[in-house]
Amino acid sequence: MTTAPRPAAELSADEARRIALRAQGFLGAPDRRAGVRGVLRSLGQVQLDTISVLARSHELIPYARLGAVGRTTVEEAYWTGTHAFEYWSHAACVLPVEEWPLFAFRRRAYRDRPHWGHELSPGAYDKVIAQLRDEGPRTATELGGAKNKGEWWDWSDSKIAVERALMHGEVVVVERRGWKRVYDLAERAIPEALRHDDLDDAECVRRLVRQAGEALGVGTRADIADYHRLKGEQFDAAVEASGLVPVTVAGWGKPAWADPAALATEPRGRHRTTLLSPFDSLIWERARTERIFGFTHRLEAYVPKQKRVHGYFAMPVLAGGRLVGRVDPAREGRTLVARQITLDGPKAVPAVARALREAAEWVGCDTVTILPDRVNLPALAPELVRELG
User: What's the pTM?
Assistant: First the structure.
């Protein structure tokens, strides 16, 4: 465990919260000229997930920061012009192409270990590489089938081979088509100047620690290491050389580090009011969310229905730099239905109504409906209906 040097600054809990909000793009005017690609570069990664309620998470994340950017615009920003690639970071993530060299340490590690117990048939790997070279980008289905006739995890030889090539860095996911991965050779998809494994493991980790610290603004050892799923000891070995500076944060009870640029100016500006994907990097780490916002949140999509408290895909509502409630949304035709709403109190009503209206307009709904008996504070349901208009 790292023993932090003498802190460079002492931050109040409120200062740390505002630094985190600004670093994540929720405080201050959004950089609309940089757009979705600017959000991706700033965050360093955008998590992918199969669940689609209002939209998929990788669409919700730029929406939360930029507002009603077109969903087609989001996809094109990620997948055209070799600006991004998909790889394993915090989870399966879209990453800015500039980060390709930083994951050399992970590609090397994958080459040196077995993969999930999947046996690879002789010749299958070379066959997939040759097929991609001859035919261009292909899905696993187009390469010969994603799975055999058994259970979902019973991958076909071509699927095992192309996923192994992906982890090794010989193949890249260049887009999602109908949520299927589209694979291509790295030699075509990654610009030549970036397509190398020249950085040693220590340098890769040092740069990722720095990038995570900049994206978070301020964080503990666990916060920063978890951003790219680094090990604690990797963080310990890299943090001193990373350029992050040690700080103390009132009430955190743990050493913390901050981006020096985040400490140089006071975080101020306009706050976003928005629904947040549970996979948004502002809140994906539960302990950090509780520490910064005093807000406990858990994705309940994989919890049995009868045990859910807030709903299948409850989305926290951010307003005024605070998390003020939750909404579990669904779409029924051109109606956005709030299947369950949790309000922290009367002051949350206007913010929740605004977030719902904006989200509805973004996804092409012209009506918002709530279920009054599914509002945790029933007395506030009529006011919420009035706010929704």
Answer: 0.93
